[in-house]
Amino acid sequence: xxxxxxxxxxxxxxxxxxxxxxxxxxxxxxxPKLSQVLVYDETQMAPxxxxxxxxxxxxxxxxGSADAVPGTIIVLESPESITxxxxxxxxxxxxxxxxxxxxxxxxVTSVYTPLQEFLIMxxxxxxxxxxxxxxxTEDQIAESVLGNLIQTGVxxxxxxxxxxxxxxxxxxxxxxxxxSPSQSAVLxxxxxxxxxxxxxxxxxxxxxxxxxxxxxLISENGKITMMTLAYGESGSATDEQLSELRTIVxxxxxxxxxxHWITGSDPLGSDLEESTMSDLKIIEPVTIVLxxxxxxxxxRSLLGAVMPPLSVGIALGISFSLVYxxxxxxxxxxxxxxxxxxxxxxxxxxxxxxxxxxYREERKAGRDKESSVREAVMWAGESIATSGATVVIxxxxxxxxxxxxxxxxxxxxxxxxLIALLVALTLIPSLLMLLGDKLFWPAKFGKPTDPETFKxxxxxxxxxxxxxxxxxxxxxxxxxxxxxxxxxISVPAIYLVVEMExxxxxxxxxxxxxxxxxxxxxxxxxxxxxxxxxxxAISFNDEFLLxxxxxxxxxxxxxxxxxxxxxxxxxxxxxxxxxxxLENGTINSxxxxxxxxxxxxxxFQNDPYDAVSMDSLNxxxxxxxxxxxxxxxxxxxxxxxxxxxxxxxxxxxxxxNTVEIVVVIAIYLVLxxxxxxVVSPLRSIITILLSISWTLAVMVLLFQxxxxxxxxxxxxxxxxxxCLGLGMDYDILLTTRIRExxxxxxxxxxxxVYSVEKTGGIITACGFIMAAAFGxxxxxxxxxxxxxxxxxxxxxxxxxMFVRIYLVPAIMSLLGxxxxxxxxxxxxxxxxxxxxxxxxxxxxQDYLSSWQRKPEE
Length: 857
What we know:
Blueprint: H1 2-27, E1 38-39, H2 51-63, E2 72-77, H3 85-102, E3 106-109, H4 113-132, H5 138-151, H6 161-175, H7 183-196, H8 200-206, H9 208-215, E4 224-231, H10 239-253, E5 259-263, H11 265-299, H12 302-326, E6 332-333, H13 335-364, H14 369-396, H15 404-435, H16 451-462, H17 467-477, H18 479-498, E7 502-503, H19 514-526, E8 534-540, H20 553-567, E9 572-575, H21 578-584, E10 597-604, H22 611-621, H23 625-628, E11 633-640, H24 641-675, H25 679-706, E12 711-712, H26 714-725, H27 728-743, H28 748-775, H29 783-815, H30 824-848
Parallel strand pairs: 1-6, 7-12
Antiparallel strand pairs: 2-4, 2-5, 3-4, 8-10, 8-11, 9-10
């Protein structure tokens, strides 16, 4: 098949170039649209059938918006007290401006909210009494309302005369707001009441329930508070609304001593998108410049340096447009765009260089342009086709994952590499047919040379022993020592990998932004899990409350026992206090509409995605009502972000095990077919896995122990897939060349030395190019791309500079004839295919024996 492709290219190269240009022109309009459809929240990409999603569906169905977590949070910190006059004025200014701008389309919760709710309740009671008894005076109505508040336990019965008079005044002012007062009017009265009564502390003395509510909004040290915002029905803020909010907060806080941050899921997502776009603006040009420089140094040609990245650019444009179209049927994670850029630029340029290098080698050997193109496609083309197949298999295997984040990465990258491979196999040879040696300008291959003259020059060149020849001879001579060293290094490396702690905290891996800083301050004051609480719904057989609004004792006692068990778990900062809810009269706010379900909110003290929080979450799920003897409890549902990430972690572990097996088996079968041997494919896979284990071990030492940043769970999986795919390029190039030279009559060791000499420079150059492409991701401001960049860069450099140049020759020398052993049917198939290739080589040699090579026009 590869021979037919070579013949097709040499005959129809102009048509092939035209087809690629047309494809690019069709794709161009869709390329900019890809960034508009990317998903920045990994939790949105979980499958709907996991336990946490089922729990969340139950919670949403039974509690409606009660389970909603505010999308935007304003964090305020004062050096003394967050309830002093200046801080309260700042909060009032922000809240009043929001009401003025958005009216009822925004819901704000602040330190004013608890009293605001009491004022609204007083207003409703006042309007009710006035409607029933229109002849009563304002003072009489206020006295009646006050009596009801004392009777129902909202206010204490032992009010002093001064407090009594103050409360009558407050009730009268609340009543004067009229029917259905606006949020702004209630807020204005709220501020006036606090000032009249001498601050929030005096109000708390009158309203014990008010103090309980304020404790949820003010940190224990009294210096930090939060304001939560929900826009519209969804509660989410747009980028425009976030921008307007920043303007309001910055303007209100100017000249004050109060520090402020805007955080929450909406600002975090917005900041992540902005930082990703900023990273791409740096990574893209750096990647292209590094690739251009390295290819230019390798070919010593300006046009030769430009052609590979230019060709890959065509592949990128077409691939981005196809991925955009894929977004209509699946979600695309934001990391895909960067990984495609760096991965395709590295792999695609490698494939192009393999073709260009083999063409140059054949031209220097005396063949004409067409024969050189044919030889390059037949031999180098087979190598890159095999390499590309392994990459597509590696990435494509992620498509079987249950987590759509992995699916999107796998399908998009497999598609991108496939397009880059087709460009290298068809467009580059076509351009060589069109432009010939001009692609290598200003380098020259010399004048036409007859075989005898070429042979004499070759003999002189052989006397000059290069680095890669010396490396191969050294590896063969010290093969046993190198293999023993490999084993000694691998044992501690594998131990470090097994003990590696993986992180599921994507927020913690983000760049330092206002939203992440605000989240850290919020964590200090309220516990890091406050923005992403865990919600536990308890389903009862009967209603929680009796007709007289007192709790059913069995339901109450068993729910309280569950809350107590959860509160004692490691890492739990707080859990809903049911007794307090009953005393405050707010128990209905955490009950379902039918009264048969109750919602507990659990806040973790530390990172809700760390190992302690995850373990405690699992312990919550393992509580069995039947084993505990809770006859009143029907079921317990655990939802929230921690539960969802725990499910994702389990999915990923299962997916990784499956993907590893599929990738290894599929790549082995491809190599078995190409190499016609049983042992060599195993050796290829094992050496790649060693490179991966060594890389992960170095990452543990650098990131985990050095920088204090755990390895994100997705990095090992992507490293495995990329290295088994892209990293296999160099092994295939070297191994197929050794196989080729043995087929031409060389001994095993001579073929190894000669092949390392011929491919070592290409492998090293391509390794530097691919490492530079991946390494540019280390310029990212976030740890996700930093870890991706370092892992892939280190693994590629290790593989290209040491494993393929020293370790593989050593192992292959020790294996000897076992490198190529295969059962009779496979050996016969390979022998037949090889004979056909050698026949084409002989035909080329016969053509060359006419001694005159065609000069380039």
